[in-house]
């Protein structure tokens, strides 16, 4: 059995964690760092390579044209900015990679390069950054636009954004900093260069006004459409993905690796990590009852599913009759997310068919005892022949313990999960195997 890389994708972002789960008890405040620090310590002790913190910059009101379902159930909102959390997580840990999300559409590249350079110095090489292009018009309207820039153009812009960020990180040559106290020379000015970037989208003079870190932060990305995969394959160290079958996982990974090779990269430098949702139970009886509960298409379950896909795709799914075939849909928002949803059932299916197919298949859920979930992951790893997985879920300690306490030893017994993280930083850990 080959070792896999594991991480945790915090899909609720720096936001509400299990606010109405009765088993959570009291005493944890999602608005403060300790809940995330506790989780990060546990992830590190468990041998997870990285913790990725999702982000989004709007209060969704796509579903039915109102924010009611989102605010009532705390879905995608409220959410703090993930970047100020990073130093707290770094201070609480010493080996795990910390990966905040930031938007190439709304951060200008100089600000991003400087912020990430600063944080990477704090991180000692453990920083990553999840680059998103923020598909939502609602987000764009918070930044002075009437609507979001066209899908592929967003990625063209993001390509240039990444290029500028990296140029700025390279604007100080190695050896530029002398700190020569004898001759009174801090830095050799001949080794610090303006980048004078005049591109299609950005004009940036440079150089960066701080010392770039020796190890550039690890770039993470989750583009799923053709253009998104091209961006990810060209630029990313880690690609995040959702896929519902081993075949789709294998195909996606092959496709991203082929793009990377076409851009002259070594595909083995990329790690493609698939999101899975382990739901740990005590025995077969509990698993059966969890499955039965999840397969029920209650109004609450319908709202839950549709508010999510409505926001992420920018298409109001409340506008469709549940029992009519769904029309052809396209979006300027997250095309890949919309395609994934619609293709959950054969073409011509009704919305109810799609929801039922997803509920029956349980989406990304892997339900069972520690040994059963680990065995499932081992089979998946074999079938995909890939790099690893990201667990998703809230980071309330009750949930993290419930998930990892039985799962970690079961994964280790199968030789899937490392016993210790190295101290060389996130990129080094990702390249250990
Ligand atoms: C695992 C995963 C995590 C993602 N995290 C974020 C996020 O934090 N913020 C965000 O705006 N988009 C996020 N996305 C959306 C992607 O960046 C991307 O827009 C989406 O997968 C659709 O692909 P496309 O843009 O190529 O159509 C995520 C997607 C996936 C699959």
UniProtKB/TrEMBL annotation:
The keyword Methyltransferase does not apply. Belongs to the NtaA/SnaA/DszA monooxygenase family. It holds the Pfam family Bac_luciferase. SUPFAM superfamilies: Bacterial luciferase-like (SSF51679). The keyword Protein biosynthesis does not apply. This is LLM class flavin-dependent oxidoreductase. Gene3D superfamilies: Luciferase-like domain (3.20.20.30). NCBIfam families: FMN_nitrolo. It comes from the Bacteria. The lineage of its organism: Bacteria, Bacillati, Actinomycetota, Actinomycetes, Micrococcales. Keywords: Flavoprotein, FMN, Monooxygenase, Oxidoreductase. Residues 38-383 form the Luciferase-like domain. FMN binds at residues 55, 101, 151, 155, 225. One of its GO terms (molecular function) is oxidoreductase activity, acting on paired donors, with incorporation or reduction of molecular oxygen.
């Amino acid at each position: 059995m080959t070792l896999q890389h594991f991480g945790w994708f915090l899909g609720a972002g720096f936001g509400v964690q299990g606010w109405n789960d009765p088993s959570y008890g009291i005493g944890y405040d999602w608005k403060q760092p300790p809940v995330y620090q506790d989780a990060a310590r546990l992830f590190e002790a468990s041998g997870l390579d990285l913790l990725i913190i999702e982000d989004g910059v709007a209060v969704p009101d796509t579903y039915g044209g109102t924010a009611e379902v989102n605010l009532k159930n705390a879905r995608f909102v409220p959410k703090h900015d993930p970047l100020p959390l990073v130093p707290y997580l770094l201070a609480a840990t010493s080996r795990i990679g910390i990966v905040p999300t930031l938007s190439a559409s709304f951060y200008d590249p100089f600000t991003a390069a400087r912020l990430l350079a600063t944080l990477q110095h704090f991180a000692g090489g453990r920083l990553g950054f999840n680059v998103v292009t923020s598909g939502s018009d609602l987000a764009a309207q918070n930044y002075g636009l009437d609507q979001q820039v066209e899908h592929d153009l967003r990625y063209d812009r993001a390509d240039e954004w990444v290029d500028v960020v990296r140029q700025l990180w390279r604007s100080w040559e190695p050896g530029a900093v002398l700190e020569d106290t004898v001759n009174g020379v801090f830095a050799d000015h001949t080794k610090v260069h303006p980048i004078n970037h005049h591109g299609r989208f950005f004009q940036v003079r440079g150089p960066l006004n701080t010392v770039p870190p020796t190890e550039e932060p690890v770039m993470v990305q989750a583009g799923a459409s053709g253009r998104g995969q091209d961006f990810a394959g060209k630029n990313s160290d880690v690609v995040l993905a959702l896929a519902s079958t081993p075949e789709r996982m294998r195909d996606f990974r092959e496709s991203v690796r082929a793009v990377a090779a076409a851009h002259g990269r070594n595909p083995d430098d990329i790690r493609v990590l698939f999101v899975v949702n382990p739901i740990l139970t005590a025995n077969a009886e509990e698993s059966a009852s969890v499955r039965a509960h999840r397969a029920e298409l209650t109004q609450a379950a319908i709202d839950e599913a549709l508010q999510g896909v409505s926001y992420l795709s920018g298409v109001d799914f409340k506008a469709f009759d549940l029992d009519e075939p769904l029309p052809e849909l396209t979006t300027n928002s997250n095309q890949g997310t919309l395609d994934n949803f619609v293709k959950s059932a054969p073409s011509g299916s009704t919305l109810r068919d799609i929801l039922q197919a997803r509920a029956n298949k349980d989406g990304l859920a892997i339900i069972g005892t520690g040994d059963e979930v680990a065995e499932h992951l081992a089979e998946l790893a074999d079938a995909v022949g890939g790099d690893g997985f990201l667990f998703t879920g809230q980071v309330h300690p009750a949930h993290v313990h419930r998930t990892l306490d039985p799962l970690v030893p079961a994964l280790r017994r199968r030789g899937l999960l490392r016993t210790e993280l190295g101290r060389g930083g996130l990129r080094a850990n990702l390249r250990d195997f």
